[in-house]
Amino acid sequence: MSTARAVINLDLPGPTISRHVYGHFAEHLGRCIYGGFWVGEDSDIPNQGGIRLDVVEALRALRIPNLRWPGGCFADDYHWRDGIGPREQRPRMVNSHWGDVVEDNAFGTHEFLALCELLDAEPYVNGNVGSGTVREMGEWVEYLTRADDSPMASLRREHGRDEPWRVPFFGIGNEPWGCGGNMRGEAYADLARQYSTYVRDHGGNHVYRIAAGAHDDDVTWTRALMEALTPFGTPLARPGVFQGISLHYYTTAGPWTDKGSATVFDDDDYWRTMAASRRIESILAAHISVMDAYDPQRLVGLVLDEWGTWWDVEPGTNPGFLYQQNTLRDALVASVHFDVFHAVAERLVMANIAQTVNVLQAMILTDPDSGALVLTPTYHVFAMNAGHQDAARLDAHLLAPDHVRRVAEEEVPTVSVSASSKDGGVLISASNLDLTEPVELTLDLRGGRLAEATGLVLTADRVETYNDADRADAVTPRPLDVITDGDVLRITLPPHAFVTVRGTLV
Ligand code: AHR
């Protein structure tokens, strides 16, 4: 068995890991909203006002901090007034991006905010720039958040909701370089300034406005947005007209035209996936360095509001519905991302996995016929890591020089660690990406001691293992031995495994 050591200073708390990096994304896409969250009031599936309660219960265990909606690409086709009022009278539309299906707008503003209340998650509403108007966006914010008898607040009351909602996050369009309008960076940057101006703070509701950002390593787009915030060439000295800039990055095993199967893959596919996953580190670093140049005080937040694996759809399913299975490989993609997110906590204020139910790297898959629900391996990573939310990052120095795998031109670390502390508790997360070799990991804790330490491990015999109706717990957390040896803890990371160790500071 190979060995590795992680030195963790328990008495040097770093920046807070925003709970919002454990955020989620639910789009009107395939069976995410319809069938996933929403079954309608007449369904046999237990629901509250049409929202399925088994999904809510499972997600409440993750303490999901925020939910982004209604898209994605759908957001720039969505007109919010179509989704209010009596459902049978709501206009229909074509969901041209996702399956070319007819959307009946049964799930609209009130249903989304009711869902957020059930989940105890903060709403992140994504507005329409591509085909909407400034007025439409401004009125939506007024409808959502204004308390008095303004025109939009009155309209909301006519539709049964007296109190305004709190909407802390608002997106200014989505992927404007592509599905959101095919714009150039400078053109969109001006629109982001304009639209953000009309996303008002009503009463005590303070909105964090998120300009739609780049994908992958397109730092030119990020630069255009930072230029728009600092038009006079001097570094940003106070919060600008928008406060956050988004970024999208998806992990695949191959080129965009050949993403690969979710469940059938060989070792090379696996390692290409791990290399692509680890690339999030250099991608975030590139955007952060551009932001640092314009905004050394870190007034603008980076928001990775779409991330996760994107595979070929499951055979026999609608290609526009992006339904994919989820194996232990997906779980490791998530655990590696979280270690990187923790490392850049100073600038990364939010991240949203795509997407919560039945689409891309989902937490939950539901059967379209029986309605039965399965928790994916990725779900368990979110659950095991939940203790990092709003905790202080602890720097974890990994001494594992031999644990590197060369994948084409890239060197992929095969062991990954991060740690945090909160309220006297410490949470350490570690992943072993190697497919065959276990690793004995020594946790060299300095500046303090843990009274007790317990461990969990998420693994399976094969990295292709997934959960389904017949084997719902094929990949599920199990207890892990944690050996206390003087001032250090020792754990064994099995091959292709994610583990957490939790303890209390004495
Ligand atoms: O998450 C699926 C799609 O991926 C989103 O709608 C879009 O923003 C991105 O291209």
From TrEMBL:
Residues covered by the Alpha-L-arabinofuranosidase C-terminal domain: 305-497
Entry EC no(s): 3.2.1.55
Domain of life: Bacteria
Catalytic activity: Hydrolysis of terminal non-reducing alpha-L-arabinofuranoside residues in alpha-L-arabinosides
Keywords: Carbohydrate metabolism, Glycosidase, Hydrolase
Record-linked InterPro entries: Alpha-L-AF_C, ASD1_cat, GH, Glyco_hydro_b
Enzymatic class: hydrolase
Subunit record text: Homohexamer; trimer of dimers.
UniProt cross-references to PANTHER family, sorted A to Z: ALPHA-L-ARABINOFURANOSIDASE C-RELATED, INTRACELLULAR EXO-ALPHA-L-ARABINOFURANOSIDASE 2
Protein family: Belongs to the glycosyl hydrolase 51 family.
Protein name per UniProt: non-reducing end alpha-L-arabinofuranosidase
Organism: Microlunatus aurantiacus
Organismal lineage: Bacteria, Bacillati, Actinomycetota, Actinomycetes, Propionibacteriales
